[in-house]
Specification:
GO terms for molecular function: 8-amino-7-oxononanoate synthase activity; pyridoxal phosphate binding. The protein is α/β, with parallel strands linked by helices. The chain is built from 15 helices and 14 strands. It binds pyridoxal-5'-phosphate. Pyridoxal-5'-phosphate (PLP) binds next to α5.
Length: 388
């Protein structure tokens, strides 16, 4: 068998045998708090649409109007003719919101993270990353010419020891961790970084829009200002894309040297218009965050006694199952009850830590959370974890 064919066959076989094969499931009629999948209605506890903006009527209208004005695509890289007034306005809106001199736009958070690390790091540099950082960051660190040191999750003490031993460099953490829903100790991390002359980069994909005044995110909530702040538009803002907020000189450097920026088609201008509108809504409609906070309290009081419950202060609510098989059975039980909550298994999380990643949206109803609690309780009674 030719090399690639046999590699593909055996990799797929291995995933299947381990019960770790992932499947693509199409959603009909928009990714809302209530979705239709395979002709059946479900309450959706698996989107990152925390503020309920992905199907917001004002945003839909903004996109439609902008398409009439700007067309459907940007038609070039930003350095050629892909950059428009719509992109400029989005940059300005981001800077005004988050208090930075500049914002560099990317088509996704994945590419923003990779662009930053590949552009900044050279041979001999030190890169310090939280062990649970997103795959885009860890992979960029592995492929970059720098020495990558991964510190245990949220351990500022280990971070400090690593920097002391290996020297100054770039420290990278998430603001809110995507699979665990916990927050990074940003104040301590900034103190350690500054003390040892490191630069700090925070990926706030899951904090932006949700935390802090006007949804300014984890850094604003902790009153810190990293040299590089990555925000994404595909989660709380309900759209797609990302930006790196930074000083004018870093932005200029990224626009010259970040290959994901220079050699990639700019996001459609109509999308930039929509994200700008989403920022305005996020800043001014505090009721969405208030609603989310009410739902989070309800989640804790309704599920707090269950064995898989983990307390978080964000809308990401991991519910621990244990083995990958048990997580799959849990997800399947929930589906039978009309609840869609995806099982997250290795390699996304470590072995034995498979879970249901429940996410809350401002568009959920209290009764839906109560239904989720009932269904999980039922599962725990029917299929207790070994040893219970
Ligand atoms: C922490 C974190 N950073 C970056 C990304 C990538 O962002 P995007 O989905 O815009 O590529 C994600 C997406 O899952 C994420 O969770």
């Amino acid at each position: 068998m030719p090399l690639f064919e046999s590699r593909i066959t055996s990799a797929l076989q291995q995933r299947t045998e381990q019960g770790l094969l992932r499947t693509l499931t199409p959603v009909h009629g928009g990714n809302k708090a209530q979705v239709k999948i395979a002709e059946q209605g479900f309450v959706n506890f698996s989107s990152n649409d925390y503020l309920g903006l992905a199907n917001d009527n004002t945003l839909k209208e903004a996109w439609k109007t902008a398409v009439d004005r700007h067309g459907v695509g940007s038609a070039a890289s930003p350095m050629v003719t892909g950059f428009s007034h719509a992109h400029q306005q989005l940059q300005d809106a981001l800077c005004d919101w988050l208090g930075y001199e500049q914002a560099v736009l990317f088509s996704s958070g994945f590419s923003a993270n990779q662009a930053a690390l590949f552009a900044l790091l050279e041979k001999g540099d030190c890169l310090y990353q939280d062990k649970l950082n997103h795959a885009s960051l860890i992979e960029a660190g592995m492929l970059s010419p720098a020495h990558q040191y991964r510190f245990p999750h949220n351990s500022t003490q280990r971070l400090s020891e690593l920097i002391e031993r290996n020297g100054s460099g770039l420290v990278v953490t998430e603001g809110v961790f995507s699979m665990d829903g916990d927050k990074a100790p940003l104040v301590d991390i900034q103190i350690q970084s500054q003390k040892q002359n490191c630069w700090l980069m925070v990926d706030d994909a899951h904090g932006i829009g949700v935390l802090g005044q006007e949804g300014k995110g984890s850094c604003a909530e902790s009153s810190i200002k990293p040299q590089l702040l990555v925000v994404t538009f595909g989660k709380a803002l309900g759209v797609q894309g990302a930006a790196i907020l930074c000083s004018s000189s870093i932005a200029e450097y990224l626009r010259q040297y970040a290959r994901h920026f220079v050699y990639s088609t700019a996001m459609p201008p109509a999308q930039a218009v929509t994200v700008t509108k989403a920022i305005q809504i996020t800043r001014t409609q505090q009721w969405r965050r208030d609603q989310l906070s009410e739902l989070q309290h309800a989640y804790s009081s309704l599920l707090g006694e269950l064995p898989g419950f983990i307390e978080t202060q964000t809308p990401i609510k991991p519910y621990l199952a244990g083995s990958a098989d048990r997580a799959m059975s849990m997800a399947s039980h929930l589906r039978q009850q009309g609840l869609w909550a995806t099982a997250i298994r290795p390699p996304t999380v470590s072995r034995g830590k498979a879970r249901i990643r429940v996410t809350l949206s401002a568009n959920h109803q209290l009764e839906e959370i109560s239904h989720l609690a009932q269904s999980l309780k039922q599962f725990e009674c029917q299929y207790p974890k070994e040893g219970c």
